[in-house]
Amino acid sequence: MRSSRSLLAAAVVVCTAGCTNPRAEAATAQALNDAANEIGGLKNDVAQLQTDLDSLRSVVARQDSVISRIVAATPK
Predict the structure, then answer these.
(1) Would you say the pTM of this structure is higher than 0.70?
(2) What separation in angstroms does the CA of 11 have from each of 2, 18, 21, 41?
(3) What does the pLDDT look like over 40-52, one tens digit per residue?
(4) What's the per-residue H, E or C state across 4-70?
(5) Which CA distances in Å does 40 have to 1, 28, 64?
(6) CA pair distance 11, 9, nearest whole angstrom
C-alpha cells in the first residue's frame, strides 16, 4: 500500500512537471533567438570597428612618417 502511494505521488509530480505552457516555451524560444541575433549583430559591429581602427592606425602611421620627414627636412 505504501509503495503504491509513493508511486502515485511520483506519477503526479512527473505529470505536473511535464505539463508546461506552450506559449511560455514559445516566448522563451523567441527571446533566445532574439538574443542570439543581437549577439551576432554585436559581433559584426565589433569586427567592423576593429577594421576601422586598423585603418585609422595605418593613416596615423603614414601621417607620422610624413611629419617626421618634414621635421627632418626643415632647417634648424
Answers:
(1) no
(2) 14, 10, 19, 45
(3) 999 999 999 999 9
(4) HHHHHHHHHHHHHHHCCCHHHHHHHHHHHHHHHHHHHHHHHHHHHHHHHHHHHHHHHHHHHHHHHHH
(5) 57, 18, 36
(6) 5
According to the model, what pLDDT value does residue 18 have?
Answer: 64
**What is the C-alpha to C-alpha distance for residues 53 and 47, in angstroms, rounded to an integer?**
10
**Region 8-31 average pLDDT:** 79
Place of cell 576601422: 52
Question: Domain span at residue 60?
Answer: 2-73
CA dist., res. 70 & res. 37, Å (int): 50
Establish how many alpha carbons lie within 13 A of residue 15's alpha carbon, considering only the half-sphere containing its beta carbon: 6
The domain total for the chain is 1
